[in-house]
Amino acid sequence: MSIRPTLETRKAQPTLEGAGVHLHRAFGFHDPSELDPFLLFDDFRNDIPEHFLRGFPWHPHRGIETITYVLAGEVDHGDSLGNTGTLGAGDVQWMTAGSGILHQEMPRGNAKGQMHGFQLWANLPGSLKMTAPRYQDVQAKEIPEIIDDDGTKVRVVVGEFWGKRGPVDGIAADPQYLDISVPPGVRKTFKVDTYRRAFAYVFAGAGVFADASKPAGVLLEKEVMGQEVNIRDMSGDRTLIRFGTGDEVTVQAGEEGIRFLLISGAPLQEPVAWHGPIVMNTQQEIQQAIRELRNGTFIRAAH
User: Fold this and answer.
1) Does the annotation flag 51 for ligand binding?
2) Which segments constitute the Pirin C-terminal domain (predicted)?
């Protein structure tokens, strides 16, 4: 067994999307080979309704799949195929954009005004980029939750883990998407397929992710005895951890415990041409999609 080393640890960056939604982006519009097959990860947790209520009005997607995971509040969604629905706390939506879809996502806060959730973009291989669009909405009660003897809790959103399989299936990237909570002070190891690219995203508490030789946290400047020094701090809220190769990930939870997403997928190793929410293999395909958006032929008739 080999523990995956930490290649990079960084904070998600604040950004604006949609009609002015304040969110934090862990990665996206970067070197797509880094976390292939994943393209983008957004953390849209917010406690100020004015920062999210304008939502994400009608916009196109082609060539990707999106996985939306809601923790608090609700997201009303609709698309050009006539699908509508509402995602609530703990619910998941997987959308295959395929050949093209227009959709909108409009968030609503809970009784406390909170809107918390994440969206992950996974690339489609060239052979499936023009497949028919489809949806899968999954309610919280359908997602298996496992509690280990030491109190570690795992929700299996996608993939198989500890003998349980998540309800979302048919995603081309064949990802494993786990929501993991480790109690205070517990050191825990999780298996990850050797051939997958993997990352963790911490969103509550703090902890240290370790390889076989040394722990790695966020490199921060802090004042100690009146002097600025660089130290390794625990990986806390809104921290992305990108792992190297190996078949295990180990974390040491801090004094408040730690909750994080552990996500992995098989790399596609294909060329990526990217224009906002449209991701193809060549610039010619991107230009074709833009022409179709302009002339009204972007949405393909259902067969």
Assistant:
1) no
2) 177-298
